[in-house]
Amino acid sequence: MAPLKWAWAAVFIWLFFSLILTCKCDDVENSNESDRGDEVDQHVEESSNEEVQAEHETDAAFKDNNADSGMNDIKSFTTKDHFQEELVIRPLHSGDIYASFQFRTQLETDFLQGKKVSHYRLFPKSLGQVLSKFSVRELHISFTQGYWRTMQWGQPFIPAPPGAELWVWFHNTVLDVDENWKELTNVLSGIFCASLNFIDSTNTVEPSASFKPLGLGNVTDHRFLRYATLPREIVCTENLTPWKKLLPCGSKAGLAVLMKSEKLFHSSFHSEAVHIRPICKDRQCSDTAWELRQTLSVVFDLYTSGQGKKDWSLFKMFSRTLTEACPLASSSKIYVDVTDNPEGELFDLSPATPTFDTSVVLGDRRTYAVYDLTKAETFGQLRSLNLLMRWKGEGGDMLRPMLHAERYVAGFGLQNGEIHTLIYNNHPYRAFPVLLLESVPWYLRLYIHTLTITSKSRENKPSYIHYQPSKDRLRPHLLEMLVQLPPHSVTEVTVQFERALLKWTEYTPDPNHGFYVGSSVISALVPSVVAMDINSTQERPLFSSFFHTKEESSYFVRVYTEPLLVNLPTPDFSMPYNVICLTCTVVAVAYGSFYNLLTRTFQVEESSLPLAKRLANVIRRIRGVPPL
Length: 628
Known about the structure:
Blueprint: H1 2-78, E1 81-91, E2 97-108, H2 125-133, E3 136-145, H3 150-153, E4 163-170, H4 177-191, E5 204-205, E6 225-230, H5 237-245, H6 261-264, E7 269-280, E8 288-300, H7 302-305, E9 312-313, H8 314-318, E10 331-337, E11 347-350, E12 356-361, E13 364-372, E14 388-391, E15 403-410, E16 416-425, E17 432-440, E18 444-455, E19 458-459, E20 464-468, E21 477-485, E22 489-499, E23 515-517, E24 521-527, E25 554-560, E26 564-566, H9 575-599, H10 611-623
Parallel strand pairs: 1-10
Antiparallel strand pairs: 1-2, 2-8, 3-4, 3-7, 4-6, 5-6, 7-8, 9-14, 10-13, 11-14, 12-13, 15-16, 16-22, 17-21, 17-24, 18-19, 18-22, 20-21, 23-26, 24-25
GO cellular component, one term: GPI-anchor transamidase complex
Signal peptide: 1-25
Keywords: Membrane, Signal, Transmembrane, Transmembrane helix
């Protein structure tokens, strides 16, 4: 039995060791396989990393190529944007200073084919979207505080009436012009923080001849034109701030740095405007572009505020100096009118400049000292430019404007009246026609049969007249006439009217102040003293290239008269207050007495006893005896 036990023990030991060796071999094989798997995985990972890296390199190269091509496309696109800025300073013979800012932004696009622009660099996107959405061909809007005194200051570069003015040409593809006009006024009201939303059918007209397109295209269908004014619009910093934000550099650099609100609105005249129109880039009109021209005109009364001295400087006018031009501007210049100072005997201008420019502006040849802000030597060593003019003598005689106008209301009472418009032709020997536009509110009912036109005490019949009568609470009167002005004459246009009675809800909060009537508009080709430049090139200064001249012998002028302030029959709005006070007093007294009678309780009191009996009753109560 013992050998058998040892045999079984040896078998079990052999089986045990064989199992151990088998497990070790499996572990070794598994470890080898795992090592080989790790090597394979590492190899696959390395190969995948190489592939990914190759893909990244390919993508990077592709992106670089796309970026290069995109940058080339952007560069090729951005080269189509141009921005120019300039400031013209003209000392006036009245002692005032006229400063005119002009900023021009051009965006080349094929607008005639209806091509939409998706990328904006210098041209403001807000206005670009407005042009595209409402199919606008031309847009002209202005905000003016004060009245331009033509006889004292001469003609402005770009005229504007007091208050707000808006006139728009739409594309001939617009189906409902009135609906587009209504939505456009609401959008512009939000962009410029103005009261343009008050423009409606009661103050909108469709001129037939007065407002022709100033840009490319000869549109004659006046159904796509709308014109409206708000003569009572007040201009303040809320309108100036969004206007400055439309500039590529804003008010951070360039000439816009001088636009300090405190100084601009402390002036005799202030006008800011935006003009958008299509133009040709060359004479052949092979390339077209949108032109955005922002203008700001200011007249400073430095002669009165400067203790009788006409000396001026940039710091005195604007409380700031210039340190750099707008980096995005291709041209940035300042023009100072030195026509009356050919030999330097009237005033000294510092710093001096060797550059001068001669331009024909409004029929007169003017000489300007030019300061180019894109050149570093203009600012000197202090890197600051502060123009200074010191007067040494009195100025010469002012050239009288060839055309100017006045308007006033005559008559007495609150029923009838008469509008007088005086048009002056100061040319000594030339007669020329003018186009007069009158837009009168519906509550002044014109008697068109009383229209009279006299020149030199003689009747002057218009060669063209267009009249559209008003409709109560729907549309205003529209009167357009083409009148020939004799040389050196005063032409008077008069028409009678009757004041209408308004509903009490149609009066303004201050009805006794009166109701405003918009300015008359006079358009004319005035004979020029010198030959005008008919070549429209990009090198011309901005102030002399807004109105394109087709003839050398004449130039275009638009003149605005004063707005009228008319009193209407006004009820005594204090009577309702008096009636309310009297009624409330009567009701309070009557109702109070009646209420007391209804709510008060009455008790019958016994007749009073004699004094002896009352004393006896008191004694009896003390004694506990019933009273008598």
